[in-house]
Amino acid sequence: xxxxxxxxxxxxxxxxxxxxxxxxxxxxxxxxxxxxxxxxxxxxxxxxxxxxxxxxxxxxxxxxxxxxxxxxxxxxxxxxxxxxxxxxxxxxxxxxxxxxxxxxxxxxxxxxxxxxxxxxxxxxxxxxxxxxxxxxxxxxxxxxxxxxxxxxxxxxxxxxxxxxxxxxxxxxxxxxxxxxxxxxxxxxxxxxxxxxxxxxxxxxxxxxxxxxxxxxxxxxxxxxxxxxxxxxxxxxxxxxxxxxxxxxxxxxxxxxxxxxxxxxxxxxxxxxxxxxxxxxxxxxxxxxxxxxxxxxxxxxxxxxxxxxxxxxxxxxxxxxxxxxxxxxxxxxxxxxxxxxxxxxxxxxxxxxxxxxxxxxxxxxxxxxxxxxxxxxxxxxxxxxxxxxxxxxxxxxxxxxxxxxxxxxxxxxxxxxxxxxxxxxxxxxxxxxxxxxxxxxxxxxxxxxxxxxxxxxxxxxxxxxxxxxxxxxxxxxxxxxxxxxxxxxxxxxxxx
Length: 495
Ligand code: HAM
Known about the structure:
Blueprint: H1 2-15, E1 19-20, E2 26-28, H2 29-36, H3 41-45, E3 49-51, H4 66-78, H5 86-108, H6 113-128, E4 134-137, H7 142-151, E5 161-170, E6 182-193, H8 204-225, E7 231-236, H9 245-258, H10 265-273, H11 287-291, H12 302-317, E8 323-324, E9 336-343, E10 352-358, H13 362-365, E11 371-379, H14 380-389, E12 399-405, H15 408-423, E13 428-429, H16 437-446, E14 449-455, H17 457-462, E15 465-469, E16 475-478, H18 480-494
The site of histidyl-adenosine monophosphate has 26 residues, from strand 6, strand 10, strand 11 and helix 14.
């Protein structure tokens, strides 16, 4: 089932000109913090992060080695091999000072408590140093795709660059149906670096058409899978400017402060950290309050409003049905203008099976050239759940043919027949030991085979093999070459 879904994604995305990218499972934590946003739930609470070890450094085991160790650390720190963080800076200075004071005491001193204290503090500081880079298991892959785009100079490829990926993502969330700590996404991204003379308001029709085609592609994929109850919601969250989203957020904040006492704890905190996310709240008692808040649609700048109108027109041209949802803000910071989510049947509270949006400027934020982006990711586990629920998931493993062979002489023929059939792309099951005909046919039935090839001594001698159609019990005799052709034809007809 997973294979079928991924294979279908490859086929459908391929028809839209997408090629596969395989980003790594972990990246520097900093990449996600910058791209997804430090205040988001994903980065602040949900990432699996760890400090890697430094290749060449191990903490000294003997007191006397600390002096040399500090010198080594200092060199590596200056060359940037040890992460240059504020905390490391502080710790290193502290370690050096204490080491110096300890040495002074040790050489000039009577060796007293102060000397020990310096030694002790130095060891604590050195032990707290972050020697290796901070890494995280990827919580999503858009950041990685943008990182790879920059690292491999994809701006020099024919534009736009269209990429898709499949694979596991990791978020420390409370597990429940449809929400896992290791889950799978199928995602796609369209990236386009601005060429000379590009950008600005004149690009709006083109950008909106790209957005609509990306959405059309997901919908085509879901259609091909016969996913049930598919609903697309769209919104525009404008762009980060005072006359657009930033202005709106100020108004929203002011309105939220007014109703602060009626809000739950999470929403109250978000007034300061991320007011837009209050709109995401699913708390029953907050719904009526949220309905009265100012709406972003009324505060978009002219260009963003135009982009949003044009997106809707483009979706209509493609006969893609959508609902507008002004509360759809998404939980990642990189979005601007278009955001969308798709829900499907049978998923309970975790019903978003796909989320995406436009992220112009993200590549630049990560150190690349000014580049536009739009993409989405599908939650593959949820997709599976929904397909299963609707009875669209199960594909019986099945066999084209079960080879029922009887008698020692028939085994060699059966082995050769299995090889021929498999070479022709047919799924052939060859029992390792001889079976009675009744048992063989029963086994063939259990495995969902369409045909049984019966090979007894008569068949071996005559070269005329017996093929039994299991659905109706009818039998035919034919030679080897004819049999292979016949089964190939039957396979092609059944798809
Ligand atoms: P996202 O909305 O965070 O977006 O995730 C996309 C989809 O992944 C969700 O709609 C959901 O189906 C699935 N998902 C997320 N978390 C879990 C979980 N814990 N368990 C199971 N499924 C989950 C992104 O990840 C963006 N990178 C999408 C994107 C690509 N935007 C632009 N390009």
